[in-house]
Amino acid sequence: MRTSIATVCLSGTLEEKIHACAEAGFDGIEIFEQDLLVSPRSPEQIRMLADELGLSLDLYQPFRDFEGVTEDLLEANLYRAEAKFKLMNLLGIGTVLLCTNVATATIDDDELAAAQLQRLADLAARYSVRIAYEALAWGKYVNDFEHAWRIADLVDRPNFGTCLDSFHILSRNWDPSGIEKIPAEKIFFVQLADAPRMSMDVLSWSRHHRVFPGEGDFALAQFMGHLVRAGYNGPVSLEIFNDIFRQTDEKRTAVDAMRSLIWLEEQTHLHLQDTEGPGFSYPMELATLPKVDDPTGFNFTEVKAEHTGAVQELLYQLGFGYAGRHRTKPVQLWTQGQARVVINEQQARNLEPSIAALGFDVENPVVAASRAVQLKAQPVPRQSQADEEVLQAVSAPDSTEVFLCEASADGTAAWTREFTPESGAPEHAAGDPTAELITRVDHVNLSQPWQHYDEAVLFYESTLSLARQPSTEVPSPLGLVRSQVMRTEDRGIRLALNVAPMALEHPTAASSYPAHVAFACTDLIAVARRALARGLDFLPVPANYYADLQARFRLDEQLLDTLQRYNLLYDRDEDGEFLHFYTATVGNVFFEVVERRGGYDGYGAPNTPVRLAAQYERSRREQD
Amino acid sequence: MRTSIATVCLSGTLEEKIHACAEAGFDGIEIFEQDLLVSPRSPEQIRMLADELGLSLDLYQPFRDFEGVTEDLLEANLYRAEAKFKLMNLLGIGTVLLCTNVATATIDDDELAAAQLQRLADLAARYSVRIAYEALAWGKYVNDFEHAWRIADLVDRPNFGTCLDSFHILSRNWDPSGIEKIPAEKIFFVQLADAPRMSMDVLSWSRHHRVFPGEGDFALAQFMGHLVRAGYNGPVSLEIFNDIFRQTDEKRTAVDAMRSLIWLEEQTHLHLQDTEGPGFSYPMELATLPKVDDPTGFNFTEVKAEHTGAVQELLYQLGFGYAGRHRTKPVQLWTQGQARVVINEQQARNLEPSIAALGFDVENPVVAASRAVQLKAQPVPRQSQADEEVLQAVSAPDSTEVFLCEASADGTAAWTREFTPESGAPEHAAGDPTAELITRVDHVNLSQPWQHYDEAVLFYESTLSLARQPSTEVPSPLGLVRSQVMRTEDRGIRLALNVAPMALEHPTAASSYPAHVAFACTDLIAVARRALARGLDFLPVPANYYADLQARFRLDEQLLDTLQRYNLLYDRDEDGEFLHFYTATVGNVFFEVVERRGGYDGYGAPNTPVRLAAQYERSRREQD
């Protein structure tokens, strides 16, 4: 598949954009006219730069609102078009994009539009330019791709074809299977965009909220399937208008963009295998990625800190046992059931306790890591001794290290053998192996910087096959927190990505959105009792909360008393019940313990505002 | 008018919110239940705190989705309601808000809904609670206020009435004049919200984009007029769900909120005077503000800097003359025509040149300042000698000082007499008074922090009667810039407020959105020629821009050459032409010179991306 991207997707100057696209590995680019007009570099210089970097210049988009107009307007449009065709000759770009008229058209007549477009096509032919005519979703008279194609067919010129844009087709819910009826040689260009489903006017939706494939809700592998079946074999180009991508580092955005196409190429291949069988042949070559199964569970979580005492104490209070120090590295291991927490003091100067790494159980770590690297994930360099387990790791967009670990049937992890309990046990080393109430990690909750949120979603979706669940917004004293759960189908991995509000003026903002690990247990009240006996500092839950709980659920008095005594939170739905509590925050991390009863599948979302407010109250108090 | 505000409008804890409301001068507050549930303070403590601060607790909003349900659900709802009525007795709140059912209603039957609400009313009566029933714009069966009132009428209980919310009425374009048909004693409560007109689903619009009155597009003075005519005299309460207000300093937001009600009160008074005449009497008392005419022009602009040489040089190159130093302050004055620039070195250590103050010509500065202060603007403390002009100034939300200056018929300013040219003229003091091509300030363009944008709009609207024009979005290499022009009807004042993208990762972001002053002139080419002769560093305009200009406008070659030689930009519309150029940026400020030909009324918006890109290119180069 030939990959391309429009310069409008990225921030920076045209030169910076071109460099970023080349570094990310695109085959070509579309020049968005605005980017050229504001550039001090001449068309010839741009052509030379792209050439040096091995990028083809696939498309130019210099004007709109051409057809369906009065004769004097048409004449002005042709004048302008000719100037642009000359410019395209300087740039060496052979295809021009022409969108259906949204503004100046006054005559709703396909024959007339086609006749006017014929004049444009004949003019373009003099400059060896092909015209790709595209229906905008909000075109005045022409807003669906089949209508645009009918007009292109009427134009009937070899250098006049159509451009298909997934946004303009899928946003309006046009049936994309009609693509297969268009002759392949008449599909001059394809633009791809994903978008979250939103109910707003389609123009604003398109101009601000497009995202890269895999980051939104459109069925793009199916869309691509229609193109492949139609016999299309040209560039597949990203044209993403997104307020955030426009203002973030262009190099990162270009990598995110490239990842989306690599992933979509694989998804398209899988979709075609499903629908057409393996023998189906088509002109477009679709590269695939190493196939991996879903990860089955968290292998470990790693907390990094200069001073580890407070984290050790929390783990001890939660019933974790000290499994020892690593033979060669300044790293401790604490375990309970299949929950493993690594505490890492390596290169942690001045670092408050923070989640630094997550280990995922996978079938084959080397294959999984190779897949991630092909998806442009950055490998984490690791040193290991000859007799140690070689661990595979890549860096997530927020710099969390993602380890791909070998899953074992009995739930153990081979690398734990490198830890020796004898050497220098910390104060609270005495675990309680007779009462391993905590069994595993239920979920992990990471704060994401707002500018890398979409990138993070695609990263976890493409490298670890985590599927996005519906996102929610949770009120906190510092603003709304957007929460996006991603998980495997069997719930072995549940990962929540949170985007916190900026709250620039609140001095406590930075520390108010710590990450956390939630452990699953079989008996939450027993875990809480033990923790209280060991002096755990529970996050306090206000009395007003329990009064409301009673009004909502009519809990029996004894349960309500128990919940309140241990600062436990409660939720219930048709499928079951959820009990949980939070520890105090240490640095940038805290822990949660949860008990799922029956088929409860959520995360106690109604209780999250209570947690956020309690954490805010605490951070205010510590500040005073 | 009794003023009130819902705690959901503000950030922080319930206690912080209550303090902020009291400090801003509200009469009462609505407690949003979530704020109470997450608070560690008991209902009694909240009641006591409000009491101490002199705030009434006007409304509680503990549940939704009551009526139109099956009997067993109704029974659970009554159980929950009774718990909440008990809680309201502890809080000392007498009115509960009940929104029409959006989620659980399954029976579309007004008689049944009324019968179920009767049972709720009778239960509430036992706790002396009144119920204010409000139609939500997205209510399942009841979504307009007249329907809700018909049901309230059927309920027919003295403690059952209606609540009217401007958002739910105006967002759906219901005719608000129906309000006048509702008996005054049955309007239990009024909630006010403004909002920008947006075409998106009404729920998202309501939950994220409400703003304070005067910051959106709703005709709220007219809305209030209907309420006053209906005889309503209860609290007028703000219930604003806004993503930005939720995350900004609650004290500022509360002041912004209070300003909106003070302004709306005046606007309502003026509206009723217009429609009913001065003799009209009604129960609601409406306070007014000192009446002022529109400001007629910019009296001066002030640039503050530690090192003033570069600004002086720019002014000299633009043809300004040095009018001297202030008698007692480290301040210089440069003038040309009626354009006056004050350069201030006072307390400017380490300060890059920045726009620090704007002077506005007003009829009566003392009255205008008093009005601004009544609108909660912060006065700027000023020291002046006995024989000096006493200048009135208040602080705008971005800390720019707004001076209210006496306008004189001949365009001079009395305070300029305090400047004496004799003492220590700087290097470039030789102005060119024979060629005062620049006549006045055309417009000023200020960058606004995103979190204070709505506040700034209301500030200029209420204190200086500037009217918002349609806002635009301009692409820059660091993201979209939102631009909002505000002006007086006669264009004497044109002020553009710009919200820049955050571009946190771009090292040049901070300096890429300087403010600027645009001077009007009678002959731009002559100004440019003189400036070039004096060595002005023009902001360079790329050749690609001129090629496009030619394609768009077919300019004659000579004009095009002249434009390109002097780095001039050009725009044209049906009403006239616009020529302009920009200087290099010095610190956080640059200058523009514009020539309006014919009736051109814009700002060369198509050229702004060219300017932003050129400034970005420069800042990148300076960085390298």
Explain this structure to me?
The structure is a homodimer of 624-residue chains. The first copy, chain A, has 624 residues and is α/β, with parallel strands linked by helices. Chain A has 2 domains: 2-276, TIM Barrel (Alpha-Beta Barrel), CATH 3.20.20; 297-623, 2,3-Dihydroxybiphenyl 1,2-Dioxygenase, domain 1. Helices cover 32% and strands 25% of the residues of chain A. Chain A has 17 helices and 26 strands. In chain A, the strands form 3 sheets. A 9-stranded mixed sheet of chain A has the order 14-15-16-13-9-12-11-10-17, covered by helices on one side. In chain A, strands 18, 19, 20, 21, 22, 23, 24, 25 and 26 form a 9-stranded mixed sheet that branches. In chain A, β10 and β11 form a beta hairpin. In chain A, α5 crosses α6. The mean pLDDT of chain A is 93. Chains A, B: Mg(2+) binds at residues 443, 516, 592. Chains A, B: One of its GO terms (biological process) is 3,4-dihydroxybenzoate biosynthetic process. Chains A, B: Belongs to the bacterial two-domain DSD family.
